[in-house]
Amino acid sequence: MAGRARRSYSVSSAYPPRPNPALTLAPPRTSGDHTFNISPDVPLPYPSGSSTWSDVTKMEQFSASSVSLAQRRHSTAALRRKYEDLEQKLEATPLWVLVSTYLNYLVLILYGHLRDILGKVFKRDEYAHLRTHNGYAPLVSDFDSFYTRRLYVRIRDCWNRPITGVASRSVKLLDRTSDDYNKTFKLTGTITEAINFASYNYLGFAQSTGDCADAVEETVKELGSLSAGSRTESGNLSLHRQLESKVAQFVGKPAALVVSMGFATNSTTIPALVRRGCLIISDELNHSSIIFGARLSGASIRVFKHNNMDSLRALLQEVISQGQPRTHRPWKKIMVIVEGLYSMEGSIVNLPALVQLRKEYGFYLYVDEAHSIGALGERGGGVCDFFGIDPSYVDILMGTFTKSFGAAGGYIAANKRFLMQDVIDYLRLRNHSFAYAESITPAVAQQIMTSLSIIRGEGGTQEGRKRIQQLAENSLYFAARLREMGFIVYGDEGSPVVPLLLFNPAKLSAFSRELLKRKIAICVVGYPATPIITSRARFCLSASHTRKDLDFALEQISEVGDLLMLKVSRAPRKSVYRPTNSISVAMWTGMLICACVSLVLILRLWLVLPMNRSRPKHKRTGPCKTCIVLGSGGHTSEMVALIRQIIHERYSPRLYIIANTDDLSEVKARKVEQDRSAIEGKDYFVHRIPRLREVGQPLQTVPFSVIKSLIGSLYVLYNMPDLVSETSVLCNGPGSCIAVCMIAYLPRILGIKHIHIVYVESFARVQTLSLTGKLLYNVVDSFLVQWPDLAAKYPRSVYNGIVV
């Protein structure tokens, strides 16, 4: 990948991975020893005693005798990886998208308040729970519940969809319907199977068959379904101790503890580590479990900009120099809390810079690896494995078993001594989720043990390495394709979480529903989980997804993106169109030119075709001068046959207006007319004009295309005004026909001439019209469709057995 360092976990036979000395699996001393530590047999790529992020100018320890130049370049880049090599800058949202999003929310809020006001007056019983009743204040005020009642309920069908079976590569959804606008639902009894992009199943261990399922079954037979107690009482099984030992070895820490709930892992551990007089410095986009735990602790909380090390450095300098509020005493402890992989943004923490700041300022570093453990790194060891950093530089490593291990619960791993005592032993007494909550069930513990063994490659299996590689390839491929299509996509390179920006609240529900119709299940997220202007769809990639699954999903996403006008990215990509920085100036200039040309055309039409309104109308008997507009598809032969069927008269001369990118239509038109001219001796003309919008064209360039298409249509009618006197305009395809129809409609508006406009809906849809058809449905004189179902659905349409 030119200009960008390759990810070390994206391994293949062409690029054999270089063992990372900071996190190398040393050869087991015994069959059960798979300690995750520094291997003395692997030469360090940096001088002894220096840190892994130091500037190393030469990789003298790297032997080039057995590898090619490309392999050597790959391995060197992997050893010297920096965050900047994989960072994807968050693209700025176009101004017009922001304005439309705010306006949409404004309309929803105003309309919601209006309904509340009217409802409290005319439907008092339905709104009784929002008013004071018998001296009791409402349990939930109308302001607090406004967003839920007026915005969320309208699109509630996009969440909480019931499923059945195993949520792995695909998921089976129980279909449901609502008769009261999503207040309640009822199951229809049918099932829809869709490709699953909504579940956290990064390595595909959510399975009902295989090694994990077999091991879980045996454990349940032996130990039962639950431990029936907390770890400090009767629920401390030998299986739990084995699991803690294996987790500690895997993440490279001396000890670890496991709890039965992922959210509680953060929310109960943080209050046990810090208290009043301490300072927590938190990333602004940290998970709610971190925020909840920080508030429970009683410590002071400061926030720095997301993944911005300059902001963190400035904040550290401020808080260390100023000390505690009012007293200015030194802080008892300063703890910086970040996530390894941010699940809403798909961004990876800049761990090398964080560790460097830790050395400079002496704070404790707490890393939440809920999404990164198992999903990042060549061995699935998380961000430390990913960046090649010794885990000892991170004081507290937290993670969950719900994402990559197909299980439940979480873990805390720490250095041996913290606060002058063993931190894990300290947490066994102070962590409420360990001391008071029920322990992990034997079935879940065994699921974690078996999946962890597969990831670590115990027994010589390569299944775990293959899953990690497959996840990496899927993540890189999927995000790159979405960006090429023109979507605004967040997330760093290789992140298994791929957020696609939707912005508008109405598009949030439309995107989810349209993809579900196409058998794709996704998770959409909006305010208040995200900022109000950055509603998004979140795709969670899995090692269980095949390339066929991804290609099918990308094709459907692209179609829905065109339908909802979501391809608003200005980033350079493979496209005929390029954004411009002078949109407003060029737009107004083009509109002025278009207005001048339109005025000239109107004057010419008025002079050439003087109309005597008092003259009695007479039926036309002469030949019909027909203009054929071909949008796309090269349906020239069929259109000529259609003219004979509809008009029943000979037409002369003939004018073809063809989209400038439709070479096939022009070739067919010239062939048909050359054959007819040899027999009838009639002239014909072919003109090329731009389409209104090409497929995949960025929306910010559409005004230019519209202006060019209108000017092209005006030019044709200006140079051949006699065609307007006795003409029928026949259109098909979504290309340039809209502009021609609008221009042909202009003489009718001005009272100059009624030009008969015929539109042929040739888009291959059986149940609905194309976007062009919807725009022209109420404008044209004759609307022909090629499917009888459309004729029954749309009263103005006509079906004559036409197939174009």
TrEMBL record:
Gene3D superfamilies: Aspartate Aminotransferase, domain 1, Glycogen Phosphorylase B, Type I PLP-dependent aspartate aminotransferase-like (Major domain). It is an enzyme of class 2 (transferase). Its EC number is 2.3.1.50. InterPro entries: Aminotrans_II_pyridoxalP_BS, Aminotransferase_I/II_large, AON_synthase_class-II, Oligosacch_biosynth_Alg14, PyrdxlP-dep_Trfase, PyrdxlP-dep_Trfase_major, PyrdxlP-dep_Trfase_small. Residues 1-41 are annotated as: Disordered. Keywords: Membrane, Pyridoxal phosphate, Transferase, Transmembrane, Transmembrane helix. Belongs to the class-II pyridoxal-phosphate-dependent aminotransferase family. This is serine C-palmitoyltransferase.
